[in-house]
């Protein structure tokens, strides 16, 4: 087979290919929370990110006009990309300083990862971390919904001890997004479980009355 001598590329195409090559290990980075609870061969960060992006797309289609769908799906795709460098770090309960340091570190990694690209990926990552816009709060909530769907599937398969997932109200933070609340109720129904008595909205955000995306952008 004839080979072509490799040389350093330049331009947008080279930057895109190099970025995807850097992200390649994400499909081998396991979601650490599952490992800690005895789940063998748990989902990878790449698998999780794909599922959250698909879930975001489905929700935006099911509630048309409520969110900027393109922005939300793009945010879901990049929301865990920094873990290619930081790995998936389980959050200790109540450690606010560590949580802040982790967020700042991941934002710096994302900014470096997507530097040189004509992309809003780093901006979307930072928006997700702040959880202030409707799209960011949607994806933050769906990140938890996907986790609880996965927990339900693992329990059905008899993989791991996952009872504490259902006992932790933080795993059901809806970030003030009505569709997220509906999805949590359906996940609990499917699992034959009850939701915890108190489900925090997520970072004490006010409730959002979903509005057509075009109206929000016009404000």
Could you explain how this protein is built, in words?
It is a single chain. This protein is globular. It has helices at residues 11-23, 32-36, 45-62, 69-78, 83-86, 96-113, 121-130, 134-156, 163-167, 178-191, 213-218. It is built from eleven helices and no strands. The protein has one domain (30-218): Hypothetical protein af1432 (Orthogonal Bundle), CATH 1.10.3210.10. By secondary structure, it is an all-alpha fold.
Please outline the helices and strands.
Layout: H1 11-23, H2 32-36, H3 45-62, H4 69-78, H5 83-86, H6 96-113, H7 121-130, H8 134-156, H9 163-167, H10 178-191, H11 213-218
Question: Can you summarize this structure?
Answer:
The chain has helices at 11-23, 32-36, 45-62, 69-78, 83-86, 96-113, 121-130, 134-156, 163-167, 178-191, 213-218.
Structure keywords:
11 helices, 58% helix, mainly alpha
**Residues in helices, as a percent range:** 55-70%
Spans of 5+ residues with little confidence (pLDDT < 50)? 204-219
From N to C, what is the helix and strand string? HHHHHHHHHHH
Report the total helices. 11
Strand content: under 5%
The averaged pLDDT comes out at 85
What is the second-level CATH architecture?
A: Orthogonal Bundle
Compute the number of structural domains: 1
Quaternary structure: single chain
Could you please say which CATH topology applies here? Hypothetical protein af1432
Q: CATH-wise, what's the superfamily?
A: Hypothetical protein af1432
Radius of gyration: 19 Å
Q: What does the overall shape look like?
A: globular
Q: Which CATH first-tier class would you pick? A: Mainly Alpha
